[in-house]
Amino acid sequence: QVQLVESGGGLVQAGGSLRLSCAASGGIFSSYVMGWFRQAPGKEREFVARVLWSGSVTAYADSVKGRFTISRDNAKNTVYLQMNSLKPEDTAVYYCAAKTGVAFEYWGQGTQVTVSS
């Protein structure tokens, strides 16, 4: 079973950038598909991005495409989310997740990202 710990959240002005990190332990990191999700106040959690095992195949929500980049370093057991051109509507708690099957089954505790206008 894998444990996930996010870091890198904070307060940033609109148009700024943040880089989130998610450190994994307790499993074979390279065997997991890794993803980022977010949940804004009063809204349901939504998919942001995911990256397959080798890091070469990625997918993004339309709302972040072209602004966010997901990557992974299997040697460091870490997945990243580089967020550029941030908008106030990107404000949310961001969660790292991992899966070996159809559904994401392992979740981190979340890190807050707040974008001021």
Describe this structure in words.
With 117 residues, this protein is mainly beta. It is 0% helix and 52% strand. The chain is built from no helices and eleven strands. The protein has strands at residues 3-7, 10-13, 18-25, 33-39, 46-51, 58-60, 68-73, 78-83, 92-99, 106-107, 111-116. The strands form two sheets. Strands 2, 4, 5, 6, 9, 10 and 11 form a seven-stranded mixed β-sheet that branches. A four-stranded antiparallel β-sheet has the order 1-3-8-7, with no helix packed on it. A hairpin with a 6-residue loop joins strand 5 and strand 6. It is globular. The N and C termini lie far apart (40 Å). The relative contact order is 0.31. The mean pLDDT is 96.
H/E element sequence = EEEEEEEEEEE
Category by helix and strand content: mainly beta
Helical content band: under 10%
Cα distance spanning the termini? 40 Å
Count of extended strands: 11
> Strand percentage, roughly?
over 45%
Rg measurement, Å: 13 Å
Average of per-residue pLDDT values: 96
